[in-house]
Amino acid sequence: MPRWLDERESRVWRAHLALHTELQAVLERRLLADSGLSLADYALLVPLSESPDGVVRARDLAASVGWERSRLSHHLTRMQRRGLIARETCPDDARGAMVRITPDGISAITAAAPTHVADIRRTFIDHLTPADLTALDDIYTRLRAALAEESEL
């Protein structure tokens, strides 16, 4: 027999889903309008731009953003066409692929980041107290650990 959500649990779950959807839509719209980058582009450019040499192995990039290989491959193809990234062979494994941020990719993320971070602050962070941030950090850490355990089963 399923353990149905009670009224409070249902309200919190639905609020979580609605917030996630609405926040992503607002941030996506603003990022696209301000920089021409999608949230997906941004999500991939961040770890590439933070890598010391601007190169990340494709499978590690997929893991860092939680994407399946096919989604990553399709999106990288689009980004490569736009000149944001380049693909290279892996020096240690001929079957592996490396992804390199290009100068255009660096310019794009550098130009987009200040406004995007300001949007994140304005739509999310600035509405939370330090205690809220501490609580959410704890909550998200526990939930992600529980999901990691689930995926191991």
UniProtKB/TrEMBL annotation:
Example GO biological process: response to stress
* Any single Pfam family the record assigns to this protein: MarR_2
The HTH marR-type domain is annotated at 1-145
Key words of the record: DNA-binding
One GO MF annotation is: DNA binding
SUPFAM superfamilies assigned to the protein according to its UniProt record, in alphabetical order: Winged helix' DNA-binding domain
- Tell me where on the tree of life, at the top rank, the source sits: Bacteria
Q: What is this protein called?
A: DNA-binding transcriptional regulator, MarR family
Q: Which organism is it from?
A: Actinokineospora terrae
